[in-house]
C-alpha cells in the first residue's frame, strides 16, 4: 500500500503552544540574569496573548458559524472599543480632555472605510462582510492604527508641554494654531508612519510578512499570497495614516483653542481614572484585611497572625 501523502496543514495543540511559550520563558530568564528588567513585561504580555487569543478564538468561531451581518458589526465595534481602551488607558503617558471619543472617532473613520472598500473592491469579496475575510482584516487595521495614534498624539502633547513657548511665539506673531503647530504635526506624523513605511520598504526583500506566510501555509499559491499581502499592506498604511492625521488634528483643536491659546491645563500626565480606581479598590481590600486581623481575639493563632501582620507592614 502506498503511504498517505503528507498533509499541507498541521493540527496544533496546547503542547505546541507550550513549546513556543518556552522561548518567552528563556528570554525572561535571560532578562533576570542580565538585570535588564524587561522580563516581567514580556511575561505579562505573553500571558495576555494566550488568554486574549483563546477568548477571541471562541468568540470568532461562533461568529463565523452564524454568518450574520449584525454579528460582524458587533465584533467590529468591539474591536474599535478595545483599541480605544488600549490607546487611552494602557499606552498613552499623556492624555487630553475628551481623548476617548477622539480616539474612537479616529479609529472608526480610518478603519471602517478602508476595510469595507478594500475588502469589496481590492480583494473582490462579495458581500464584503463575510466574517472569515472581513474580521481578520479589520483586526489588522485596528492594530496598526493603535501604534500610529499613540506615537502621533504622544509626540504632539509632549511638544506642547515642553516647548510651549515656541508655539506661543508663532501665535503672538499672528499665526493660526495649525500654522504654529505645523512643524510639530509634520514630525509627529513622520514618527507615527515610520514603522509602516520601513515595513513596506523591506517586505518581500528581507522579511516574509505574516499574512503571506499564513496564506502559503493555508495552501494558497505563492503568487496569490504575494498579491494578497500587497493589498493588505496598502490598506494598513492607508488606515494608519488616516487615523494618525485625524487624531492629531483633533488633538490640536482641543489643546490649542480657537482663541489661539495653548491649553496645557487640558493635558493630563497622571494615572488614568481606571487605574486610580483599581488602586483604591486594592487599598480598600487590604485595609479590610488589616482591620479584621487587628480585631482578632487572643484565640489560637491570634498573636501569631498579628505579629505577622505587623512584620508585613514594617
Polypeptide structure, described:
By secondary structure, the protein is mainly alpha-helical. It has two domains: 16-66; 69-276, no CATH class. The chain has twelve helices and two strands. It has helices spanning 14-34, 39-66, 69-91, 99-122, 131-162, 164-172, 177-180, 182-202, 210-217, 222-255, 273-294, 302-313, and strands at 95-96, 267-268. It is globular. It starts with 13 loop residues before the first helix and ends with a helix.
Assembly state here?
A: single chain
Structural class: mainly alpha
For the CA atoms, what is the radius of gyration? 25 Å
For the termini, the CA-CA separation is 76 Å
Mean pLDDT: 86
Roughly what fraction of the amino acids lie in strands?
A: under 5%
List how many beta strands DSSP finds: 2
The number of distinct helices, counting runs of at least 4 residues, comes to 12
- Major β-sheet profile: 2 strands, antiparallel
Q: Assign a percent range to the helix content.
A: over 70%
Task: Specify the overall morphology.
Answer: globular
Strand order within the widest beta sheet: 1-2
Unreliably modeled segments: 1-6
What is the N-to-C order of secondary-structure elements (H for helix, E for strand)? HHHEHHHHHHHEHH
Instruction: Provide the number of structural domains.
Output: 2
Amino acid at each position: 500500500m502506498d503511504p498517505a501523502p503528507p498533509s499541507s496543514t498541521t493540527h496544533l495543540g496546547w503542547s505546541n503552544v507550550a513549546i513556543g511559550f518556552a522561548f518567552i520563558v528563556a528570554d525572561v530568564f535571560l532578562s533576570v540574569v542580565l538585570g535588564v528588567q524587561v522580563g516581567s513585561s514580556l511575561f505579562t504580555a505573553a500571558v495576555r496573548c494566550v488568554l486574549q487569543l483563546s477568548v477571541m478564538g471562541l468568540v470568532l468561531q461562533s461568529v463565523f458559524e452564524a454568518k450574520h451581518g449584525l454579528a460582524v458589526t458587533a465584533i467590529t465595534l468591539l474591536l474599535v472599543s478595545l483599541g480605544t481602551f488600549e490607546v487611552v488607558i494602557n499606552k498613552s503617558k499623556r492624555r487630553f480632555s475628551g481623548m476617548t471619543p477622539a480616539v474612537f472617532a479616529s479609529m472608526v473613520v480610518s478603519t471602517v472605510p478602508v476595510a469595507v472598500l478594500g475588502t469589496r473592491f481590492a480583494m473582490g469579496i462579495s458581500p464584503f462582510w463575510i466574517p472569515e475575510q472581513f474580521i481578520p482584516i479589520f483586526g489588522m487595521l485596528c492594530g496598526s492604527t493603535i501604534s500610529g495614534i499613540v506615537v502621533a498624539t504622544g509626540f504632539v502633547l509632549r511638544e506642547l508641554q515642553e516647548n510651549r513657548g515656541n508655539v506661543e511665539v508663532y501665535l503672538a506673531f499672528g499665526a493660526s494654531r495649525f500654522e504654529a503647530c505645523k512643524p510639530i504635526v509634520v514630525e509627529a506624523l513622520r514618527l507615527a508612519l515610520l514603522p509602516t513605511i520601513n515595513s513596506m520598504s523591506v517586505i518581500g526583500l528581507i522579511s516574509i510578512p505574516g499574512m503571506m506566510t499564513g496564506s502559503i501555509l493555508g495552501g494558497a499559491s505563492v503568487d496569490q499570497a504575494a498579491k494578497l499581502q500587497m493589498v493588505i499592506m496598502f490598506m494598513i498604511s492607508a488606515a494608519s495614516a488616516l487615523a494618525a492625521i485625524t487624531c492629531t488634528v483633533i488633538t490640536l483643536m482641543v489643546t490649542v483653542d480657537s482663541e489661539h491659546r495653548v491649553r496645557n491645563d487640558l493635558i493630563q500626565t497622571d494615572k488614568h481614572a481606571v487605574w486610580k480606581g483599581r488602586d483604591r479598590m486594592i487599598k480598600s481590600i487590604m485595609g479590610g484585611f488589616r482591620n479584621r486581623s487587628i480585631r482578632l481575639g487572643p484565640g489560637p493563632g491570634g498573636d501569631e497572625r498579628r505579629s505577622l501582620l505587623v512584620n508585613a507592614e514594617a
